[in-house]
Amino acid sequence: MTAIIECKNLTHSYGKRLIYENLNFEVPKGRILGLLGKNGTGKTTTINILSGFLRPQRGACKIFGDDIQSMPASLRANIGLLIEGHVQYQFMTIEQIERFYSQCYPKWKKEPYYELMNKLKVAPKQRISRMSCGQRSQVALGLILAQDPELLILDDFSLGLDPGYRRLFVDYLRDYASSENKTVFLTSHIIQDMERLVDDCIIMDYGKILLQQPVKQLLETIHCYQFETDEASHIDRLIDDNELYNPTCLGKKVELYSFLTKDALVKKMHDVSIDYQHLSSAQVNLEDAFIGLTGKY
Amino acid sequence: MNRIYQITFVIFIAILALWQLPWGYRFVFKKQTQTTLPFMLFSPVSHEFSYYEKDDQNNLIGKDLAGRTYTSNELDSVLPLFYYRQLADRHALPDTIAGEAMPISKIKKGRFIFRSSPDDINGPITPLYMLLESEPKRLDFSFPTDFFRCTNQGLEFIDMKTNKIKKVKSEHFTQTLKAMGCQFPIIKLHSNPSVRKAYDNGYLMVDSRHQLFQLKMTHGEADCQALILPKGVEANQVFITEYASHKSLGFVTDMSHKMYLIDAATGTTHSIDIPGFDPTIQDIMIIGNPLIWTVRIQDSMSTTYYGLDAHDYHLYKKKVYPNKQNSFIGLHFTSWKDGYVRTRWN
Amino acid sequence: MINIQYMIRPLFYKEWMKTRWFLLLTFIVLVGVSSYAMMVFQHAVSRKGMEHLLIMMLMRKATLVHLVKYLPIGVGLGMAIVQFVPEMHKKCLKLTLHLPFVISKSIGVMLAWGTLMLTLCFASSFLIIFGTLYGPLPSELLAQSISTLYPWYAAGFFAYFMTSATVLEPTWGWRIGYVLITALGLRIFLLSDQPFAYTHFTWEMIGLIILASTLSWQSVHRFKVGHQD
User: Fold this and answer.
1) Partner residues linked to B235 by β-bridges
2) A134, A168, B148, C221: which has the highest count of C-beta atoms within 10 A?
3) Is A185 within 8 Å of A27 (Cβ atoms)?
4) Which chain C residue shows the shortest CA-CA distance from A69?
């Protein structure tokens, strides 16, 4: 499958604070990829690098095979960019902004934009500065749809949106991306939205990528295990195990996440001499998996 | 490409730093090193430069360069032509000074101050000139209703009200000057276009062959005379004078910066016994009286005082004070030598 | 490679949207002040006579245009603010830089808009002054007034470019540096009000303006590679 985005050996730090080192990932054509990570793990840094507004200290990112920092300007017509907060030119009305962008992009299709605007029931002469964040998000989305790019980069698309607008945004985007075979790279701080939208996810931890795989595969293979034990202090024996994620203990109840099967976990606990009772395994959603893999703190 | 922007930024900073840092340095340190010279006058009595100075208790003490000290009253007597009012008040003004009878009327008539600064010569000017009627019907002078400009062909008078050229007047003045041997264009001219003066000497003009002329307007007619320069002397800068003594028409410097006084009665020039005065780079002040001229010439290198005999302008004495040189070179845009803004290194 | 002519239309449209009310206000103020200055001149002529006025102009080096002195600087400063503060609001500049145009050319077109509009505003003010004074004043006195005006207009362009660079700059440290350069630079343009004082400084003024204009590209480059406080 052709990679639309290729990032190799990305290294970046702010002053002495290293964000990540030698980060590698690819985004194949036609996939919706969500970047998940706790605050400070480098999500915004990655988005900024991908959208060309940050030069990484080492490594390179290519989009459509061209280095982002030196790509021909015309290639940007094929990249739709949603800036955090659904920022658009505040001084224009929805009609003026469409007129402006239509002169910039050769493949411009104004129909999807006005279709969305009609749903919002806003007057064509309404100024963007007087719109709610939700309305603005639809304007920004409509403009991206009208631009008709091959790749969409969306920075925290759910920021400031109420559940209704979030759902509207997600549904519209999902339908559009799947019907037009578009590639989407996005971040959001609301993981339920991601689950509804993304095909693949990258989960970042401090300084590294924890995993990159299809969401479906992740949710099928990761398990949340719960059991009880009288020797809670022995849980320390599991903490350093690379195959067990974030074991936590509340009274006698222990919870941990792992890609291991139940039998494999039983054997592991036997090996480290932990007595347990009522071992159970539960299906998890993406948010549980994210917290399970990266921890609550 | 970004390198180019960085270079332009560095150039910008360099320009501003070269301009402001030396200025800041001078602002902070010059006050400590600057010495101001006292106001000195040459005495016709002691034949020495004399001046007032403040002592530690802020009292004024008279001094001279021979090392003598004076009380206030004594110094008034050493410089009687300068402090004649004080002496007259005390009935201490002598009848004769340096062997010459000196009534107050003579002192008043013979006193003058002449000043010129490079700024006056080099600074920007608007090349339009006003020629006053030298013998007005009423006693007071009045401003003319026209300007004149100097063209390659002659003088061109412009009516102020209509902004139209006065052809007849222009032709008349041009032809009168030509008849005196003037070759246009006029390259230097000077006058005192004031209506608050006792009499009018009109304009001193230097033509393209560096000859010297005086032009006045008398009863509406051109009144012109060619002034006589010593053989081989070419006029350079001219300065009109209209002093109470009526003795002089003005000063002129030649191409080698020799200074002359133009005698009003004869139209001839008298050499002034100072080594040189270049009005484009030197500041001059002459404080004159019937007996003595004290001349102070300043430039960036030094300040020199000359004491001259007011009768024949020969030199009695001079004193040179070298200026402290500032070795801190910087970029400047303005200068006391002219009124222009331009790039200069000094 | 997108040809520059395709950039000009949309970018000029965007700049027009931002600046149109400011331009209208500027036009009214500049034309108003210039007209007022000329009315003062005509009033003085009718009260005291042309001769008196011209003699005063010649002797006192009066220029009749002192009312206009700080206006071009204010206009240049305001134009840059109106044009570029909306771009920096919530980092809107990212949208402009993401357009499928060569970034340096986009910045050039935006600055060209400002330069063009300032030229039109200053030209309208200049034409009112020139038109009023051309007939009654001898060419020397006309030149005396005009020679005082043009460094002020040049200062307006300098203020525009420096303020643009300052607003577009992403970090406060550099912004403060630019403000200092602006203040010192403007001082150079206002060193003398004497007529003809800047006669031998025309090329230097042009040089300073060109230098100032390049700083906006530097600011945008720094924004583009991610400099921030």
Assistant:
1) B254
2) B148
3) yes
4) C225
Establish if B180 belongs to a structural domain.
yes
- Segment B35-50, tens digit of pLDDT: 678 889 999 999 999 9
Name beta bridge partners: B194. Answer: none
Q: Are residues B157 and B90 in the same domain?
A: no
Domain containing B91 equals 41-110
pLDDT exceeds 60 at position A265: yes
Pair of tokens at residue B149: 């400009």
CA dist., res. B67 & res. B61, Å (int): 12
- Distance between CA A251 and CA A228 in Å, rounded? 9
Identify whether residues B277 and B132 lie together within a single domain.
yes
Residue C172, chain A, CB below 8 Å: the answer is no
Give the distance from residue C24's alpha carbon to the nearest chain B alpha carbon, in angstroms: 33
What is the token pair recorded at A197? 């939208």
Residue B237 lies in a domain: yes
Interface pTM, i.e. ipTM: 0.90
Q: Give me the mean pLDDT over the A224-248 stretch.
A: 84
pTM of the model: 0.90
Give B1's pLDDT tier (boundaries 50, 70, 90).
low
Is pLDDT of B180 > 50?
yes
Question: What does the alpha-carbon distance between residue B80 and residue B78 come to, in Å, rounded to a whole number?
Answer: 6
A11 and chain C in contact, CB less than 8 A: no
What is the structure's pLDDT at B96? 92
Interface test with B, best of C53, C55, C164, C171 (most B CBs within 10 A): C55
Nearest to C121 by CA among C15, C191, C19, C206: C19
B87 lies in the same domain as B180: no
- Give the count of domains, chain B: 3
Residue corresponding to tokens 């090329």: C203
- Residue B229's nearest CA partner among B216, B211, B204, B256 is B211
B153 and B92 within one domain: no
Q: Indicate whether C12 pLDDT > 60.
A: yes
CA distance A253 to B93: 121
Please write the tens of the pLDDT for every residue from B314-329.
999 999 999 876 666 8
What subunits touch chain A, counting only 3 or more CB pairs under 8 A? C
Q: Which of B252, B302, B323, B282 is nearest to B120 (CA)?
A: B282
SS (H, E, C) chain C: CCCHHHHHHHHHHHHHHHHHHHHHHHHHHHHHHHHHHHHHHHHHHHHHCHHHHHHHHHHHCCCCCHHHCCHHHHHHHHHHHHHHHHHHHHHCHHHHHHCCCCHHHHHHHHHHHHHHHHHHHHHHHHHHHHHHHHCCCCHHHHHHHHHHHHHHHHHHHHHHHHHHHHHHCCCHHHHHHHHHHHHHHHHHHCCCCCCCCCHHHHHHHHHHHHHHHHHHHHHHHHHHCCCCC
Residue-level pLDDT at C116:
97
Do B82 and B224 lie in one domain? The reply is no
Nearest-angstrom CA–CA distance, B183 and B190: 17
> What does the mean pLDDT of chain B come to?
92
Residues B12 and B138 in one domain: no
B174 plus B221 within the same structural domain: yes
- Cα–Cα distance between B172 and B146 in angstroms, integer? 15
The interaxial angle of helices C103-134 and C202-224, nearest 10 deg, is 150
pLDDT tens track for A186-234 = 998 888 888 889 999 999 988 889 999 999 999 999 999 999 988 777 7
Cis peptide before B185 (omega within 30 of 0): yes
What sign does the dihedral C23-C28-C33-C39 (CA atoms) show?
positive
Which residue, among C57, C107, C218, C220, would best test binding to B if mutated, counting the most B CBs under 10 Å from its CB? C218
Report, in this order, helix, strand and coil percent for chain B, each rounded to 5.
Answer: 20, 35, 45
pLDDT on residue A269: 86
